[in-house]
Amino acid sequence: MRTHQLVLQWIEGQLSSGQLALGGRLPAERSLAEQLQVSRTSVREAIRVLEAMGVLRAGVGSGPEAGTVVIADPTAALGSALRLHVATSHLPVKDVVETRVLLESWAASRARPESPSLAEAARLLEEMDGCADTEEFLALDVRFHLALADAAGNAVVSAMMGSLREAIQEYAGRLTGNLPDWDATATRLRAEHRGILAAITDHDGSRAAQLVAEHIEGYYAEAGLGSGA
Amino acid sequence: MRTHQLVLQWIEGQLSSGQLALGGRLPAERSLAEQLQVSRTSVREAIRVLEAMGVLRAGVGSGPEAGTVVIADPTAALGSALRLHVATSHLPVKDVVETRVLLESWAASRARPESPSLAEAARLLEEMDGCADTEEFLALDVRFHLALADAAGNAVVSAMMGSLREAIQEYAGRLTGNLPDWDATATRLRAEHRGILAAITDHDGSRAAQLVAEHIEGYYAEAGLGSGA
DNA sequence: TTACTTGATGTGGTTGGACCACACGCCTAG
DNA sequence: CTAGGCGTGTGGTCCAACCACATCAAGTAA
To answer: Which nucleotide is nearest to A58 (CA to C1')?
Structure first.
């Protein structure tokens, strides 16, 4: 057992037992090192790992915003992990897209029409109508899909969805360059978005799932998944 | 930009560009520190993060087994991340189970009957028949479900499946204590496993998916998900 | 010649100490 | 009462050293 893992275990124990909760502050690095009888280096290595996992956030300076506090950002952890393994070609982009279709279809079929996330999604659609910039459009698109996922009310699915999107974001961005006519594509995407939202509002979960699957697969097909990169 | 993140970027770049591939060896920590003009501490922090992500493995000593080498264990990264966030009560166990049902059902419906993973799954079932120990049975059960997931041929789904299982493994272990009659449950599980496998072999994906969903939900319902913990 | 011992070498693991930049909050001078 | 400076505590970074471990090569004894 390496030293920093001992620190990891201690912190995880504090989290499990509830003695360290969301928003709580970890003891200062020097203090924690002394308390656990290890070097500050080992404490820092453990904190670094938890930071990468989206569990902690380190802040310099003094005052309420400073110090190392407990956060909850599961998407960050899953996202960077997936991105790294995609980088090693161990996780094919094809599988990532396929999984995204699976999760998003499920979320669409389960989305509750009265969810506040859907109102947010509708608002994002309005914003996308008056948006000429490609990059800004894509950023709004990401938020729209995340809002749809949130509407299903499953935090794990939402986190995984977001992480999948993050993992292939750079890849997807390159794909848009393959598109023959961006304006036409954007118009089509807007229409498809509205169709999905309407299906959910109509309590037609299976139609919504079907539309989402076609929406995602259609985009990657048009942009040339498999032919490029 | 913090120093260790610079190291992270450098390594990720090496991975993306293919100059560092699976099984490849990272330069020695001291050497890499000098090369990137940073301290060994920062290099170590970056390596620690990638180790937690299942991308690297550090080995002491000398020779071919030593040094820091590139591995590919996405399940480890996703698993510990999920486990930590479950520990902070940010990801409800209910959502984890629900997601597991979703992924496993999909995998069962897509499993290719001729996949070698299915042969492995069948072998595991044989082993479970002659297994009286509860803990050993559960370990084999995990491997059985992972083999089923592998048979669908989607690495991302397999990794997520395994990580979900890992994240609630301790929780599930505690649940078995709630069971009124373990022997009866084990017998039922064995029968259900065979049913699932048969459905896949018969090319009946939808029946396999249905059986898997009932199999998982039934277990957690019997063990008292929601009533306990 | 063969087999064993022994040391050199190189790896990550750990430690302590030092210094920096930063941000807050008190405390003093105006 | 206000405005500025400075003390204090935080994480961020670096360095130099030492340890444990595993291998490999040279040397030695059989």
So the answer is: D11
User: Do B58 and B99 belong together in one domain?
Assistant: no
Same domain, B65 and B79: no
Instruction: Retrieve residue A89's tokens.
Output: 């070609």
A222 CB burial (10 A radius; 0-12, 13-18, 19+):
middle
Contact residues for A22 (Cβ-Cβ < 8 A; gap 6+): A70, A71, A72, B88, B89, B90
The chain A residue lying nearest B97, using CA atoms, is: A156
Can you say how many angstroms the Cα of residue B171 is from the centroid of all Cα atoms in its chain?
15
| Claim to verify: residue A130 and residue A19 sit in the same structural domain | no
* Percentage with pLDDT > 70 across chain B: 98
Is there a domain that residue A199 lies in?
yes
Q: Is B218 exposed, middle or buried (0-12, 13-18, 19+ CB in 10 A)?
A: middle
Residue A29 belongs to domain spanning: 3-70
Q: Which amino acid is at A89?
A: S
Same domain (yes/no): A54, A19? yes
Amino acid in position B88: T
**Residue A108 at interface with chain B, using a CB cutoff of 8 Å:** no
pLDDT digits 0-9 by tens, B173-189 = 888 888 889 999 999 99
- Nearest residue to nucleotide D9, by CA–C1' distance, is A62
Q: B139-165: b or e for each residue (b if 16 or more CB lie within 10 Å)?
A: ebbbebbbbbbbbbbbbbbbbbbbbbb
pLDDT tens per residue, range A141-162: 999 999 999 999 999 999 999 9
